[in-house]
Design brief:
single chain, about 500 residues, 3 domains, elongated, seven-stranded antiparallel beta sheet, seven-stranded mixed beta sheet
């Protein structure tokens, strides 16, 4: 009768970091104390299915094992003993990792079946259970705590070969249109090139620019075709899988988020330039990072760089209960501004007030100028994501020398404002792009830290988040465009 040994534990390290070690079939010589030496036979890689490792234990026993299966998606491998001086017969073992719910720890399940000579069942079960599995748990835990994995293979921080792509899920657009053109697909995530970080994404931020790309309003930014679908998405958060050459400061398992000017985030795994990437503090969960990074940095530069908001500034925020709107209301109120906001429902009005919006105007027909004038006599700063449908009302809401910041165009492209139109009240107009405010070295990390600090200090509140699966991206876009959503929308993988 076959014997069965099952053991499991929890490792205090992210799953990407643990898997980066265990997926290398020859890594056990580095971390398992019972292994004296080990090599992969022939010219095979340590992650190549079918490869054979030949190793010697410190007690002198010799074993040859073959890798039968390896799944990066499931974090699972299976192997068997081909030849051994130990009397283990028909030995087959399976190793499986699962993320613990907090995302920072890893559940490790290790089991095997094997035959033994009569009378040695208990002895060999104990050898496998205690001498191999339990000792292995202790040894790998110590290895990771001491940072042994961070120095594997010279400058690389992971055992993933740079030439090895991994399979991934993604959501692509083959032709422009409504939310239904967002279709789940399978694909591959290329290994990181020099200067890149490959990330296992766990949360992906949804922004209105994704809608513009899907509609085809910026075709140069997201070219699409049936043969080469475009993938939207500008930001995500997750864990580092591996890095390319000349990348410093990021290691396998690090929790990170990124923001970049090239779309492609609607996927499970992605390689991006290291300069797009920032580390996440322990207090910032993945979905919070995906909800806050782009939107929080946008609020920061709008209020501090462009708007120069201070005590007494009168500000009008459209979509005040949206992801950016709530941050603007709270942060502007903290700076001493008088905050006026528009929303489309009473339910949203309550949320906006809770985030610092003093004067909330409920409107679904883009009529708000009279209410703005009544509330504060016109505004010094207008932050507009509505576009053409609100054009005339925006002009009527601005005070003399007011500044109009066009952040988006949800209702349609804004027609040009003539110099005479602006000059009638000495108005100024801006159409900023967030990426120009994080382009200098270190600027992204600095601005991200200001957002994390604002959250920690209570300047802004934890974001209201609506979560959708990656495969439900179409439903998420429909929700965003319905004007029914509150706060930020995030895809989770």
């Amino acid at each position: 009768m076959l014997q069965k040994v099952v053991r499991s534990t929890v490792i205090d390290a992210p799953i990407e970091r643990v898997w980066a070690v265990l997926r290398d079939f020859n890594s056990h010589a580095e971390w398992h104390a019972v292994v004296e030496s080990s090599r992969i036979e022939g010219n095979d890689r340590g992650d190549q299915v079918g490869c054979v490792r030949s190793f010697t234990l410190k007690d002198g026993n010799r074993i040859r094992e073959q890798l039968l299966t390896l799944s990066d998606n499931d974090h699972k491998s299976t192997y068997c003993i081909v030849e051994a001086t130990l009397p283990l017969q028909r030995y087959v073992a399976t190793l499986t990792l699962k993320p613990v719910t907090d995302g920072r720890r890893t559940f490790w399940h290790w089991e095997s079946t094997f035959g033994t000579p009569p009378g040695r069942e208990r002895e060999l079960r104990e050898t496998v259970a205690q001498g191999v599995y339990e000792a292995g748990f202790v040894n790998l835990r110590r290895y990771l705590q001491q940072g042994g994995d961070l120095h594997r293979g010279g400058n690389t921080t992971s055992s993933l070969p740079r030439a090895l792509p991994v399979s991934t899920r993604r959501v692509g657009v083959s032709h422009y249109g409504g939310p239904d053109v967002l279709q789940p697909q399978s694909g591959e995530a290329a290994a990181p090139r020099a200067g890149e970080v490959r990330i296992q994404q766990r949360a992906i931020g949804i922004n209105f620019i994704d809608v513009y790309l899907r509609r085809g309003w910026i075709p140069s930014m997201l070219p699409v075709s049936g043969e080469s679908p475009g993938v939207p998405g500008m930001e995500a958060a997750g864990g580092v899988l591996d890095v390319g050459e000349n990348v410093h400061g990021f290691f396998a398992g690090d929790r990170v988020a990124y923001l970049g000017p090239v779309p492609g985030a609607y996927c499970g795994v992605r390689s991006v330039p290291a300069e797009w990437v920032v580390r996440l503090p322990p207090a910032i969960e993945d979905d919070v990072a995906a909800a806050l990074l782009l939107k929080g940095i946008t609020a920061d530069y709008l209020l501090h760089d462009l708007g120069r908001v201070q005590r007494g500034t009168r500000i009008l925020v459209h979509a005040a209960a949206g992801g950016v709107g709530l941050l603007l209301c709270a942060w502007a109120r903290h700076l001493g501004a008088t905050v006026v906001g528009t929303v489309s429902s009473e339910a949203k009005a309550r949320v906006a007030r809770d985030h610092g919006c003093e004067h909330v105007i409920v409107t679904r027909d883009y009529r708000f100028a009279d209410a703005v004038q009544h509330a504060c006599g016109g505004v010094d700063l207008l932050i507009d994501g509505l576009g053409e449908a609100a054009r005339d009302e925006n002009l009527a809401s601005l005070a003399s020398r007011g500044h109009w910041i066009s952040l988006g165009q949800a209702s349609g492209a804004l027609t040009a404002l003539s110099s005479d139109t602006l000059g009638a009240k000495s108005l100024s107009f801006s159409r900023p792009v967030v990426f120009d405010y994080v382009s200098a070295p270190g600027q992204l990390a600095d601005r991200a830290q200001r957002v994390w600090n604002a959250l920690a200090d209570g300047v802004i509140k934890r974001p209201v988040i609506e979560r959708f699966s990656l495969e439900s991206a179409a439903q998420a876009h429909a929700r965003l465009e319905s004007r029914g959503s509150v706060g930020a929308l995030v895809l989770v993988t």
